[in-house]
Amino acid sequence: MNDDIDFSLILHKHGWATLLVNIKGEVHQIGASSSLSDPLYDIASLLLSLLNNENEIRIMWWEEPGWNSLWVKRDDTQHHILSIEIGSSLDQHGKEKYEKIAGFQIKLKQFLVIMFYQLKKIYHLLPEKSFATEREGEFPYELYDKLIEKISMTFPRIL
Q1: How far is CA 75 from CA 45, 54, 56, 105, 136, in A?
Q2: Which residues contact 124 (CB under 8 A, 6 or more apart)?
Q3: What is the DSSP letter of 117?
Q4: Cβ-count burial 40-53 (b if 16+ within 10 Å, e if not)
Q5: Residue 94 has pLDDT above 90, yes or no
Q6: What is the DSSP string of 88-102?
Q7: Residue 123, Cβ density class (10 Å: 0-12 exposed, 13-18 middle, ≥19 buried)
Q8: Confidence at residue 128, expressed as pLDDT on a 0 to 100 scale
Q9: At what angle do helices 108-125 and 141-154 cross, to 10 degrees?
Q10: What is the domain-level CATH number for residue 125?
Q11: How far is it, in rounded angstroms, from Cα 106 to Cα 50?
């Protein structure tokens, strides 16, 4: 397992988002169209699912063309360890040409902290008019509130 992992979520204007994944200094990029996917909702939902002890979650983000995936699986014996696979396909149906971009293991708490703070960053930037321009309607406020409530019960020191 490697703890030299970081994520950066960028919410672009006009309905696009990018998730940068840095693994040992190698950066991988996952794009998503907000008109075809809902990346902020998906990340909040993923974190809630993990906090609710789900064992496997797969997110698919559509681009033009193709799609990207983030597949998170909890270790069968060490439940605090997550295996994550990032992949993509140019095929809209995804049955052919799937390519694994990266795979790694990370502790649940580390993943939760990094991803939650990406959501929190965007939450605090959206009230700024200059940032919010052409990004309206992109944030899942109700789900974010549920996530904060669950984190406060499970990992209160993260907040």
Answers
A1: 19, 11, 9, 9, 37
A2: none
A3: H
A4: bbbbbbbbbebbee
A5: no
A6: EESSTT-SSS-EEEE
A7: middle
A8: 95
A9: 140
A10: 3.30.2450
A11: 13
The Cα–Cα gap between 105 and 103 comes to: 7
Two tokens, residue 56: 């496997």
Provide the domain count of the chain. Answer: 1
Task: Please give the residue range of the domain that contains residue 24.
Answer: 5-158
Percentage above 70 pLDDT, the chain = 97
Per the omega criterion (within 30 degrees of 0), is the bond before 156 cis?
no
pLDDT tens readout for residues 101-151: 999 999 999 999 999 999 999 999 999 999 999 987 889 999 999 999 999
The whole-number average pLDDT for the span 50-70 is: 94
Over the chain, what is the mean pLDDT?
93
